[in-house]
C-alpha cells in the first residue's frame, strides 16, 4: 500500500506564475508611459476651479464610499445605495429619477446648461455575496457622484464653464448579471441621447487601459432515459455521461483556443441515486473572448461540443444562451483616455498604457456593451497593493482603506476633468467620434450575437 496519503486540505496553488508576471510588469513599468495627446481642452482656470470643487467635496466623496463599503448589497438589491445617492443629490439641489430603464435600483440625474453635447458619468455600487465590495464598487460609486457634483457646482458658479448636458447614471448589478445590458433593453445608452460615456474601475494598478473580455452565459440541460443501473443499464440513456463528456470536451477544446480566451463550466444537476441511470443533468457555462467576433466563434465551438456529447450518449439537449445578457469586450476610446491620463497626472498618478499588465489577468464587464454603442473609457485606478486581486477579501479591505478613499477623490476629479475637456473642446469631440467610427462604429451586443 502506498505510503502517500492525500491531505484533508487542498494543496495551495503554486505562486510562481503570478510572481513572474509581477516581475515582468515591474520591468515594463520602468520603460512604459502613456503618450498624452495634446488637446486644447478646458481653459486652465476652469480646470483649477474644478479641482477646487473636488477638494471641497472630498468629505462627501469619501462618505459615499464608506457608506457603500459598510452596507454591501448584491445586484438588483441596492436599495440602501440608491437612497443614499438620492439623499446626496437632493442635498445639492439636484433632481433624480429612480428606477430608470426598467431596473428598480438604478437612477438618473442631469444638469443642462444651454445647447451642446451630452456626456454621461456612470457609477456602479453592487457588491459580491459574502465578501462585500471585493471589486471596489464602493470607490467607483463615489467617484461618479463626486465628479457630477463638482461639475454641477462649477456651472452654477460660472455659467460659462461649459455648454451642454452632463448625465449621472447609477448602473446596478454589474457583477454577473449585466445590469447595464438590462438597462440597454430598457432604452438606456442610445447614441442619439449622448455623445460619450465615462466610467472607471478599482484595481491594484493605475491603468489607462486594460483588456476586458466579452462574456456569454450558457445553460445546458441534457435529457436521458432512467433505468436500473445494475440490472438493465442498457435500457437507459445517461444524462450525467453527456455532462461529463461535455466537461471533458471543453478541456480538449481549450488546447485550440487563443491564450486569453476562457471557458468555465459547472454541473449543477447530475443525478439523484447511484442505482439509477441519470435522467436529467444541467450545466452552466461562462464563455469569454477578447473580441466580439472571436466571442461569437468560440460560442459556436462550445455549442458543438455540447451537441456532440448529446449525440454520443443518445440524450436530448436544450441549449439556452445568455439568460443574463451577454457582455462585449471594452472598446476604449484613446482620445478620451488621453484626457484621463492628463487629469490623473495632475493628481500625482501616472496610469500605465495597455500591455504593461498582462492581458491574461482579464475579467469582464457590462460596460463593454456601452462602449460599442457610444464612445467611452473604462480606466482602472489603484486602490490596493499590486498583488491584491479583484474578488478577494483583501480587495474589499483595500477599497475601504485610506488608499481607497484617495482613489475615490482622484477618480472623481479624473472623470469630471475628462467631461469638462469634452464639453469645451470641439476638436476633441470630433476626434472622439472619428476614432469610434474608425473602430467599427455602433454594435448592439444582442443583435450581433444573435446569429
Question: Can you put this structure into words, describing what you see?
Answer:
It is a single chain. This protein has helices spanning 16-31, 44-56, 58-70, 79-91, 137-157, 179-185, 239-253, 292-313, 334-346, 367-371, 393-399, 402-424, 426-438, 445-450; strands at 97-98, 107-113, 118-123, 164-170, 196-198, 201-203, 214-223, 262-269, 280-289, 316-321, 376-377, 380-382. Helix 3 packs antiparallel against helix 5, helix 3 (58-70) packs across helix 12 and helix 9 (334-346) crosses helix 12. It has 14 helices and twelve strands. The protein has 451 residues and is of the alpha/beta class. The chain has two domains: 30-212 and 330-450, 3-Layer(aba) Sandwich (Aminopeptidase), CATH 3.40.630.10; 214-321, Alpha-Beta Plaits, CATH 3.30.70.360. The strands form three sheets. It has a six-stranded mixed beta sheet. It has a four-stranded antiparallel beta sheet with strand order 8-9-7-10, with helices on one face. A two-stranded parallel ribbon has the order 6-12. It is elongated, with a radius of gyration of 24 Å. The longest helix has 23 residues, at 402-424.
Question: How would you briefly describe this protein structure?
Answer:
By secondary structure, the chain is of the alpha/beta class.
Q: Radius of gyration from the CA trace?
A: 24 Å
| Biggest sheet record | 6 strands, mixed
Average pLDDT metric: 96
Largest sheet, order of strands side by side? 1-2-4-3-5-11
Domain count: the total is 2
What's the shape? elongated
Euclidean distance between termini CA atoms? 56 Å
Structural class: alpha/beta
Query: Number of DSSP strands?
Result: 12
CATH architecture of the largest domain: 3-Layer(aba) Sandwich
> What would CATH call the homologous superfamily of the largest domain?
Zn peptidases
Query: So how many helices?
Result: 14
Low-confidence spans: pLDDT under 50, at least 5 residues?
none
Query: What is the CATH top level name of the largest domain?
Result: Alpha Beta
CATH topology of the largest domain: Aminopeptidase
Question: Helix fraction?
Answer: 40-55%
Order of helices and strands: HHHHEEEHEHEEEHEEHEHHEEHHHH
Beta-strand content: 5-15%
Amino acid at each position: 500500500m502506498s505510503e502517500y496519503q492525500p491531505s484533508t486540505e487542498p494543496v495551495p496553488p503554486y505562486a510562481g506564475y503570478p510572481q513572474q508576471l509581477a516581475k515582468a510588469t515591474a520591468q515594463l513599468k520602468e520603460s512604459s508611459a502613456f503618450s498624452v495627446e495634446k488637446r486644447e481642452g478646458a481653459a486652465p482656470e476652469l480646470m483649477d476651479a474644478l479641482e477646487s470643487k473636488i477638494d471641497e467635496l472630498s468629505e462627501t466623496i469619501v462618505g459615499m464610499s464608506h457608506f457603500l463599503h459598510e452596507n454591501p448589497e448584491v445586484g438588483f438589491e441596492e436599495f440602501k445605495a440608491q437612497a443614499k445617492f438620492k439623499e446626496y443629490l437632493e442635498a445639492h439641489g439636484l433632481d433624480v429619477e429612480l428606477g430608470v430603464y426598467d431596473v428598480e435600483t438604478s437612477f438618473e440625474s442631469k444638469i443642462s446648461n444651454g445647447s451642446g453635447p451630452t456626456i454621461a458619468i456612470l457609477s456602479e455600487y453592487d457588491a459580491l455575496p459574502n465578501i462585500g465590495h471585493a471589486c471596489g464598487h464602493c470607490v467607483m460609486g463615489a467617484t461618479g457622484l463626486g465628479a457630477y457634483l463638482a461639475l454641477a457646482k462649477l456651472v452654477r458658479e460660472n455659467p460659462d464653464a461649459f455648454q451642454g448636458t452632463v448625465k449621472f447614471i447609477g448602473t446596478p448589478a454589474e457583477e454577473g448579471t449585466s445590469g447595464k445590458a438590462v438597462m440597454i433593453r430598457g432604452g438606456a445608452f442610445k447614441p442619439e441621447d449622448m455623445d460619450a460615456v465615462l466610467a472607471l474601475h478599482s484595481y491594484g494598478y493605475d491603468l489607462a487601459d486594460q483588456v476586458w473580455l466579452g462574456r456569454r452565459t450558457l445553460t445546458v440541460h441534457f435529457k436521458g432515459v432512467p433505468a436500473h443501473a445494475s440490472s438493465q443499464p442498457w435500457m437507459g440513456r445517461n444524462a450525467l455521461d453527456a455532462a461529463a463528456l461535455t466537461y471533458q470536451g471543453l478541456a480538449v477544446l481549450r488546447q485550440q483556443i487563443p491564450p486569453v480566451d476562457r471557458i468555465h463550466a459547472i454541473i449543477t444537476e447530475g443525478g439523484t441515486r447511484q442505482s439509477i441511470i441519470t435522467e436529467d443533468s444541467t450545466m452552466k457555462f461562462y464563455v469569454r473572448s477578447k473580441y466580439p467576433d472571436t466571442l461569437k466563434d468560440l460560442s459556436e465551438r462550445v455549442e458543438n461540443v455540447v451537441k456532440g456529447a448529446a449525440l454520443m450518449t443518445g440524450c436530448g439537449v436544450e441549449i439556452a444562451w445568455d439568460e443574463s445578457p451577454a457582455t462585449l469586450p471594452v472598446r476604449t476610446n484613446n482620445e478620451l483616455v488621453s484626457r484621463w491620463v492628463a487629469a490623473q497626472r495632475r493628481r500625482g498618478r501616472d496610469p500605465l498604457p495597455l500591455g504593461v499588465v498582462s492581458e491574461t489577468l482579464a475579467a469582464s464587464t457590462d460596460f463593454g456593451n456601452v462602449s460599442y454603442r457610444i464612445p467611452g473609457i473604462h480606466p482602472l485606478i489603484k486602490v490596493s497593493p499590486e498583488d491584491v486581486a479583484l474578488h478577494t477579501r483583501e480587495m474589499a479591505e483595500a477599497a475601504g482603506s485610506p488608499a481607497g478613499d484617495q482613489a475615490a477623490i482622484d477618480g472623481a476629479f479624473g472623470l469630471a476633468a475628462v467631461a469638462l475637456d469634452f464639453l469645451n473642446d470641439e476638436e476633441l469631440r470630433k476626434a472622439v467620434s472619428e476614432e469610434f467610427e474608425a473602430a467599427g462604429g455602433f454594435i448592439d451586443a444582442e443583435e450581433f450575437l444573435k446569429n
